[in-house]
Amino acid sequence: MYNNNNNNNVHFTPVIVYNNVDTDKSKILFDNKGKSGIYLWTHKETGKIYVGSAVDLSNRLSKYFSPLDLKRIDNYISRALLHHTYSTFTLSILEYIDISNLSKEETKKLILEREQFYIDSLEPGYNILKVAGSSLGFIHSEGSKTLMSIAQKSIDRTGQNNPMFGRVGENNPFYGQTHSPETLKKLIEANLGKVKSKETKEKMSEAKGSIIYVYDTQGILIYTFSSARNAAENLNSHHQTIIRYTKSKKVFRNKWILSTSLITP
Fold first, then answer.
1. Hey, how many other C-beta atoms are within 10 angstroms of the C-beta on 214?
2. Quick count: other Cβ atoms within 10 Å of Cβ 265?
3. Stretch 67-93: mean pLDDT, rounded?
4. Are strands 2-4 and 7-12 parallel, antiparallel or unpaired?
5. How confident is the model over 130-161, as pLDDT tens digits?
6. What is the CA radius of gyration of the chain?
7. 120-132 burial: b if 16+ Cβ within 10 Å, else e
8. HEC readout, 74-86
């Protein structure tokens, strides 16, 4: 039985619990092949949890067993699994969902409703985004989508108009250098500034916003949002509140530190 420490009236008995995730990988994937439902990762030492859902649990859970997929996903739970290793977690199936007679849209709606129910009830610490359906991969705001779309359209794919064209290896002034996300953002915006269309500039102005970095109280980066508004939408807050906390450096909701710049250890 799982008890939510924040609400003693919430009790759930999982359908199945895999106590040794490290050695039960094959069994986990076999047991859940073709099944839909809600799953729960639990860190044994701290009790910290993560709730997720999938139409095909086996397919979804297989991504958690791939270090490459975990690095690509790069959210709070994926970093925790890479850092703590599988042996420190248990995996539970909270609920199987019968979707045999449902359409694709009905299936998605039902699964997300059940996931949201568990997120609201259990208040999982690893679920930074409290909206069902955002469990794997970064959700881009409409603003960031616009920026990326404009960036793609403005690229000279031949490279011949680039002043760096043909300057490779040590002849390239950026040889051996790496750039932080903040620097890359500035470089992209500088390149986008060359676009002359008034409509394009207006869209860029609407989409533009400072990147919000979310750290835990230990100073570990756990999530990145494209703007204060994007952060507010996903953290159920107001963008002005997000901005205020980035300036004050106070702990947001006793959990996170918000910043507009990367914090170096």
1. 22
2. 4
3. 90
4. antiparallel
5. 788 754 333 334 444 444 454 445 444 444 55
6. 22
7. ebbbbbbbbbebb
8. CCHHHHHHHHHCH
Picking from 26-35, 42-51, 162-171, which range would have the lowest pLDDT averaged per residue?
Answer: 162-171
- Please, are residues 262 and 219 in contact by the beta-carbon 8 Å criterion? no
pTM for the complete prediction? Answer: 0.57
> Residue 116: its pLDDT value, please?
92
Full set of structural domains in the chain with CATH = 2-122 (3.40.1440.10), 142-155+179-207 (no CATH), 212-259 (no CATH)
Question: 93, 82, 88: which is closest to 18 by C-alpha?
Answer: 93
- Separation in Å, CA 152 to CA 30, 195, 225: 41, 12, 20
- Determine the pLDDT at residue 72: 84
Place of tokens 């994937």: 29
